Amino acid sequence: ETLNTQIHMRTKALVLTAAICAGGVATSMAQVYSENSVGYYTLDLPQGFTMVANQFNNGDNNLNTVLPLPDSLAGAQFLKWDSSAGGQTFLPADDFFGSAFGGWVDANFTPTATTLVPGEGGFINMPAAASVTFVGEVPQGTLNVTIPPLFSIVSQPTPQELGLDAAGLPATVGDQVLFWDNTASPQGFTAALDYFGPAFGGWVDANFTPVDPTPAIGESLFYNSAAATDVTWTRDFDVNQP
Asked: How far apart are CA 65 and CA 111, in angstroms?
């Protein structure tokens, strides 16, 4: 509820400053294609907010590198989450002003230093529905994603549609996962999925039915960690292995 409130408050601020309407239809995640260690995927994004992830390494992984948009989408915004204990709120938004004005710029209207690396995620606010393509080198080897206490935005560090349990995420009893529903009006989070431990079904939905939270390719999610310290989610991945 707190996160939904913050999103809605942020939406109101964006509407006042940019007159961008939050709403839309379901996001369609396309099949990932790869050859050797280079690949891409295309996300069909609706107007409004969607939680996205970059699951490739592309240069410096700066927004202007991994998320270049056409000038027709000027007005788009990107929000990352400050997961530090003293933060737990959204960082200032980056705005897309088009190629003639620096592309993605920060709150000081300078080209942004914001990065989006595999394992992270954030909200993109689209002024209109459009397809966005992520491209780069597929992360391989031993991959580590740090999950701090309380809320953070995380994603699979590889372009796979794989459940968190199946992907070896070391959950703590009391953890929660929240997915964003960009089809609701107003948009908001779906019911939280809770981790009760192996003896009680592991991850369960609101009806206490066991589930394995599974983000789509290119999708990020909010993770609420009950652990007292950072948790490391380690993935060993090789594109040549099944």
From this structure: 11
